[in-house]
Amino acid sequence: MTPAAQKIAPLEEQGNGQIIYGLDIGGTKIEIGVFTDELQLIDSWRTPTPTTSYSEFVSTIINLINEANSRYEKKAIVGIGMPGIIDKNGLVKSANVPCSTGKNIIADLNDILNCSISIGNDCRLFALSESVGGAGEGYKRVYGAIIGTGAAGGFCIDGQLYNGRSGFAGEYGHLPVSAFLIDKYKLPLKTCGCGLIGCYEAYVSGPGLSWIYQHFGAQTTDTFHFVQRLNAGDEIAKATFNCYMDLLGASFASLILSYDPDIIVVGGGISKIDQVIESLPFYVNKHLFTGVECPLIKRAKYGDSSGVRGAAILRKQLSDS
Ligand SMILES: [Zn+2]
User: pLDDT band for position 2 (50/70/90)?
Assistant: First the structure.
């Protein structure tokens, strides 16, 4: 059980402060977490995500908030995290929730709900969650990197997300793979989900690891099988691991040269593989020149709870400022 999932004292014992709802919208489910003003999780539940009908999608969010309002008779503020790009005008572009693309979710929810809402990219909110009370607590510059279905992240300074001019700062997965590594492993150039060719995400995400495993001759794309074979000393698994880690290490070296963080906090499915976490500093240092060293790398503290928690922190910070 993650710390965020631990049940705490009933709300009536938490004082009369404001409560915060954090919503984590994924391609298959929407989770709502109810937090105290001190970011303690009181309650959470989830429901399937409607991905094709926008009106159903909006009513599902409204139903979750209304349900929370009826469970907790307090005035709440709401933060939302979701995959995809939210531009500076609030318009969403999301491959995982196609019905939301081109919509202004905040404006549409505000038309119906009388509460204050903010929205952010889920991977960036993972970084924020780990920076504030998570594995990056106590460090000034925290980079949060997800390695899972995709490869994305965000950068925080003093517990605040660094957004950059357009809100995209931290997208390490869409930096181009080193030409040296493409040549070294004779890798074909893969088209990334973003439309560009040769992005790191196509190689270092979970599907990227599966692809490399097959590229080296495995008969399966199953990453669980890969880890089993790696532990057994299988040659194909070892070659896959070396190539994968070289690519992942190079991608982290690029983000280190860009952001120079004090710590990198890693989450997502691939971060659960012990060998990846343990050997990452070695592979990162291979791609850094003399005088630059890999910073501390730690596994995420909040894991799967970081979506709702990061969304709640984003909203709380706007409210506090
Ligand atoms: Zn890309």
Answer: very low
